[in-house]
What we know:
Radius of gyration: 21 Å
CATH architecture: Beta Barrel
Helix content: 25-40%
Strand content: 25-35%
Number of strands: 9
Number of helices: 4
CATH superfamily: Sortase
Largest sheet: 9 strands, mixed
Order of helices and strands: HHEEEHEEEEHEE
Distance between the termini: 72 Å
Amino acid sequence: MKLKKGSIFIIIGLLLLVAALLLTCFNLYDQFRGERSVDNIMDKMILKNGEHSLQEGEIPDYILNPDMEMPVETIDGRDFIGTLEIPSLNLNLPIISQWSYGNLRVAPCRYDGSAYKNDMILAAHNYPSHFGNLKYLKEGEHVIFTDADGNKFTYTAVVRETLMPTAVNEMLSKEEDDWDLTLFTCTVGGRSRVVVRCVLW
């Protein structure tokens, strides 16, 4: 009887080890696939990247009409509003126009807001090739968003905080001290969110 119980526990332990190994392999594959997706998209993007030239005295459309929709570039059936560069983390990432769980597995996404209204919120998985190293972004370091028309917006990181996954109102903070740009990702295990708030530089 004791031998049977011991064998059952050994089998259960082995099954749990196999399940953990399979989960680890899946997560590593998912990270690898996310990195490949970003590289593939960046190779295909044809952003104007600063080539958007204005005549002297001409005012950009987004300043005249900040409520306008952000222009997009469609790649592989997904709309991208531009790119995000974080030099200190060696990141240059495409940004998908609308977030969804499926889109997040491909590239960072716009969660809410607009660069034109100075209230854009970007979300990404915690893959090292996405926002996995966001916790290392220091106060005073720069973040550069370039829209699909080549308009550049340079921000400075000013606050890093941790929020619970249910703290939606805090994430979408609409108080007087609104942030011009918010970046967030989940921690390993998804128990909290790493949030970096930025202001225009």
